[in-house]
Specification:
- The structure is a homodimer of 240-residue chains.
- The first copy, chain A, has 240 residues and is of the alpha+beta class.
- Helices cover 40% and strands 22% of the residues of chain A.
- Chain A has 8 helices and 11 strands.
- Chain A has helices spanning 3-8, 27-31, 115-124, 126-152, 155-172, 186-193, 197-209, 225-232; strands at residues 37-41, 46-48, 56-62, 65-70, 76-82, 87-88, 101-104, 108-114, 179-181, 213-216, 219-222.
- In chain A, strands 1-8-3-6 form a 4-stranded antiparallel beta sheet. Chain A has a 4-stranded antiparallel beta sheet with strand order 2-7-4-5. Chain A has a 3-stranded antiparallel beta sheet with strand order 9-11-10.
- In chain A, a hairpin with a 2-residue loop joins strand 10 and strand 11 (219-222).
- In chain A, helix 5 (155-172) packs across helix 7 (197-209).
- Residues 1-22 of chain A have low confidence and may be disordered.
- Chains A and B meet through strand 5, helix 3 and helix 4 of A and strand 5, helix 3 and helix 4 of B.
- The first copy, chain A, binds a DNA duplex (30 and 30 nucleotides) through residues 154-155, 185-187, 195-202, 205, 217-218, 238.
Chain lengths: 240, 240
Amino acid sequence: MNLAAIRADHTFAANAPQHPCNPTLDLELLRTLVPVRRIQVKAGQVLYRAGSAFDSIYVVHAGCFKTQLVSADGRERTTGFRMRGDLLGADSIGSPVRMSDAVALDDGEVRELPYPAVMRACAGVPELQAMLTVALAAEIRTDRQWMLALGTLTAEQRVAAFLLDLGARHAALGYSGQHFVMRMTRAEIGSFLSIKLETVTRCMTLLAGRGCIEVRRREIRLVDHAALEALASGAGLRMH
Amino acid sequence: MNLAAIRADHTFAANAPQHPCNPTLDLELLRTLVPVRRIQVKAGQVLYRAGSAFDSIYVVHAGCFKTQLVSADGRERTTGFRMRGDLLGADSIGSPVRMSDAVALDDGEVRELPYPAVMRACAGVPELQAMLTVALAAEIRTDRQWMLALGTLTAEQRVAAFLLDLGARHAALGYSGQHFVMRMTRAEIGSFLSIKLETVTRCMTLLAGRGCIEVRRREIRLVDHAALEALASGAGLRMH
DNA sequence: CGTCCATTTGAAGGTAGTCAACAACCGTGG
DNA sequence: CCACGGTTGTTGACTACCTTCAAATGGACG
């Protein structure tokens, strides 16, 4: 299905955000109302961890982050990747403690927004409150689109959808959507797509063999965008 | 993992809602601020459909609903089941059109809240706005817990988690959490859990064979709660 | 230059999917 | 009241996709 395609698909929310990155909070406006702190992070650094106190939300300014859930018995799953402009930590609103971990995949920077202050600001500025509400709803939509994808697509189709999504997000940030370097490992991609890392590798090799993409470790080039779209949209080319 | 267990697990949000049903909107308060319309629905009736205009959100008052996403090429997935107190349609906030379908599984009733009015009410009543924000964040948490479950559990474990969740939700509504009648078909359960309906049947038969549950079509009795918890928490009893 | 981690590739096995038939149940209408 | 058709649920056999286990390669970094 490919989230990028859906974003442009007027069947669904045409001008609505498909990805948390699009219509997040207006930082300019926020800065006048709440104390915004800049936080530098290094690759591998944990921004926050499940169980720690929830007291602020973040907006990614640079770098790439992953969010993950870990169950009591150690099962673990990456729930998303966040890039510039994306909201981070808002899923814990209403909870005294965070429900997930956020880890930097490379050096980066976030803007920290103390949540009590954000809440007060929202109470006084309806536009701000609307933005937050919309951003949360957009996260729900994104999550559910991925649920649909993971529940109905094969491993190869999921990888195609994932690469298209990454490309679209890079493009939305002004970078090339055809040629980019992924910040995440195969294991992290697999965790997000609910497949094993070996399967991620195999699928990428397959896609490369079909001429859809070019892969060199984390460097990706989307060669045949149409074919990828077709795959991610459920076209069941099951030729082996 | 079982969402019910997590709800009670202080590792995560102890007193925070695990399910959209818990701390939704305060209808009493809302009624004084926005025009609330009651809508009766019959089993099978579509409350709203993807692509239709988004103009209101709903609170389930009676009956059971499913929400589902359908892709352009026809792939389909149930994204959740909603019971009394649960919010319906809030995932489309910020979008001009709805992103999903909502279908009544049996006769029921919902309260319709025109969204523009809700938004205006929120602007004037910070508590209301906070409730909406918290409800949305809680939906995100629920979705992600299920993502973790579906990504890391076997079919049988998913079914165990599903039944525990259903039981916990019934109990939260004042019904028996041990003995209840499901409103959804095997196909709908399978769609939600990302497994086929035959697999749902097989897993239930398996669980019954182990003495964990008793099944008679849609009638379920949770006999060995502890064993179910263990299964849903990842205990890999793979004895055949 | 050596170690470690990430990635790739191969072979074998298992879990869930597919296809198909049957049984049970429901509501309807005779 | 019972017959009936259609839907829903159950079960079996076979298949396929993905996982698991294992080993080798390639980079990154100290």
